[in-house]
Amino acid sequence: MEHKQFFSILQERLGKDKKGVDALYSGLLQIIKERSVSMDSVSVQGFGTFEPRKKIERITVNPATGKRMLIPPRIVPTLDEPGAVFILDNSKNNNKMRINEMFFWYLDALLTSDCNSTLGNVDDAEIGQLLSTPGVSIISKLGKDKSDMQNLLSTFHNNIYAPLEEDKVIKYIGLINSGMGKGIRIEDIYEEVGTPLDTYIGYEADSTLCVLSGLSLPYTKMDEIREKIDASKDTIKRNITAQNNSRLTNNLGFFDEVSEKPKEKKKSNRDMLF
C-alpha cells in the first residue's frame, strides 16, 4: 500500500479531512522521534512497538557520482511487530485449566522437538519464524497411532482454539511427522487451509506436530460475541440499574407489624375502685 492510499483510507476511517490526518500523523512521528532520542520505546496496543536502534557510522558510495561518503551514527526507530497470537476458546471445554494445560503441552512439544532425520528437519530458525510471524497461529499434536490425514485435518477445527476463518489466508506451515509421515500429504493441508509462502517439513519425530502460522483473526467468532453482547445490553443495563436503585425507601421494620404488643395488666377490683 502506497503512502497516498494509506492516508486516503485513514482519512475515511477517522472521518477527518487531509489537514486533520496530517496533524495526527505528524504528532505521532514527533512523539516517536522524541522518545527515540531518550532511547525509550513507544508501544501502540494491537499494532506494535517502536524500538530505538543505534546505527554506527559507515562509508557508502554515491551511485551517481561514485564518491565515497561518511554516514554519521544515528538513532532510528524500528517497528517490532507482535508475533504469533494463539486465541484459546474457553467454550471448548468446561475445565478452563484443562485448555491452558493442553496448549502448554502443544507449545512445549514444539519447542522441545528433537527430530533428527536425514529426510529433513524443522530447525530452530524455522520454528522461530513460525512463532514470530504476525497473525493467528494454532499448534496441533497427534500421537504415532493416530497420525493420519483425517485426524490431522480434524485437529484444525476440533481443538482448543477459536474457529479458523474460511478465507484460507496463511503465511507459513510447519509439519513435523512422526516416523516417515506416511498417509499425510502436504497438498491436502494446502487444500484445507490455503497455500502458504513457505512450508517447513521434518520427519522421524515421536509425534506429529503441525503449526499453522499467519492466519487471519477469527472475525466470524468475534462477530458472534459482539451480537450476543448487543442482544444482552438491555438485560445487563436493567440488572445494573436494579442494583444501584434501592427500593427500600422506608425503614427496614419488617417485624414491626408482627411483633407482640405489651399486654395490659388486668386491673384488679381495687384499681377499678380507685
Describe this protein's structure.
With 274 residues, the chain is an alpha+beta fold. It folds into 2 domains: 3-81, IHF-like DNA-binding proteins (HU Protein, Chain A); 85-219, 60s Ribosomal Protein L30, Chain: A. It contains 9 helices and 10 strands. The protein has helices at 3-14, 18-37, 96-111, 124-132, 149-155, 186-193, 219-231, 233-244, 269-273; strands at residues 42-44, 48-55, 58-61, 68-71, 74-80, 84-85, 135-142, 172-178, 198-205, 208-215. The longest helix has 20 residues, at 18-37. 17% of the residues are buried.
CATH architecture of the largest domain: 2-Layer Sandwich
**Tell me, what is the CATH class of the largest domain?**
Alpha Beta
CATH topology of the largest domain: 60s Ribosomal Protein L30, Chain: A
Rg, rounded, reads 33 Å
Shape: flat
Which sheet architecture does the biggest sheet show?
Answer: 5 strands, mixed
Give, in spatial order, the strands making up the sheet with the most strands: 6-7-10-8-9
Helix and strand pattern: HHEEEEEEHHEHEHEEHHH
How would you summarize this macromolecular structure in one to three sentences?
By secondary structure, the protein is an alpha+beta fold.
